[in-house]
Amino acid sequence: MEMKSLATELSSNTYPGRGIVIGKTPDGKHAAIAYFIMGRSENSRNRVFIKEGEGIRTQAYDPSKLEDPSLIIYAPVRVLGNKTIVTNGDQTDTIYDLMNKQFTFEQALRTREFEPDAPNYTPRISGILHIEGGSYNYAMSILKSNNGNPDACNRYTFAYENPVNGEGHFIHTYMGDGNPLPSFEGEPVLVKIPDDMNEFAELVWNHLNEENKVSLFIRYINLEDGSYETKIINKNK
After folding, report:
1. How far apart are CA 27 and CA 210, in angstroms?
2. 120: Cβ–Cβ under 8 A, 6 or more apart, which residues?
3. How far apart are CA 36 and CA 18, in angstroms?
4. Does a cis peptide bond (omega within 30 degrees of 0) precede residue 76?
5. Model's pTM, two decimal places?
6. DSSP strands (E only) in the chain
7. Is the pLDDT confidence value at 218 over 90?
8. 95 three-class SS
9. Cα dihedral sign for 34, 75, 132, 98?
10. Which fold has domain 6-234?
């Protein structure tokens, strides 16, 4: 697979929607995560990321303007032991709860499907990182309608064992702007991951569409001891 420029992938798409990047730093010392949200409506743009436990939650920036919270207020990131879960919806809780009962990542997601936001039927994208004793693997999933037909749910899981230093994968909800919004297609895109967390944050944030970007979460996890650093950028301040 050809490695793509993450900056180009982001800047060439005015509305990738919500996106997940997971990978490994070039020095091989850290797992890297990026999760961003965007919005076209006032309700979607009226959000910030806040820390909650070892993860994060979305919250209304101005509670008086919050309309329908059902698909925009959720915990995108939660930590279950040596596993970090990142998703674009409340399936984070589904994965957390069922994996805590010994279900697999895929089995947990079998209980969910794409979002009920006709006519877009926004895909549910999810990722999980497993770090133990210096070893590291991750997986990404997308649940999507069958080319806009909500009668069928197409399920794809991509697993990455022993990730290569400096490489990551990028998956997002939409191929671009439109009405209805076109769902992501194909495999997660192969991209470069930098060693420096702040550089990674700036790369993602600065190449998201200025009008539509809302919030960004970045985390680097030390593969030896599981410690981590987190950076959150919110457009609403």
Report:
1. 31
2. 180, 181
3. 6
4. no
5. 0.98
6. 19-24, 30-38, 47-52, 55-60, 77-80, 83-87, 124-132, 135-146, 149-161, 167-172, 189-192, 213-222, 228-234
7. yes
8. helix
9. negative
10. Glutamine Phosphoribosylpyrophosphate, subunit 1, domain 1 (3.60.20)
Residues 220-235: tens digit of each pLDDT:
999 999 999 999 999 9
As a whole number of angstroms, the distance between CA 21 and CA 148 comes to: 25
* Domain parsing of the chain, residue ranges: 6-234
Instruction: Please count the CA atoms within 13 angstroms of the CA of 83 that sit on its side-chain side.
Output: 18
Fill in the amino acid letter for 22.
I
Is there a contact between 15 and 212 (Cβ–Cβ < 8 Å)?
A: yes
Residue 39 DSSP SS3: coil
Residues 162-171: pLDDT tens digits? 999 999 999 9
Average pLDDT, integer, range 124-133: 97
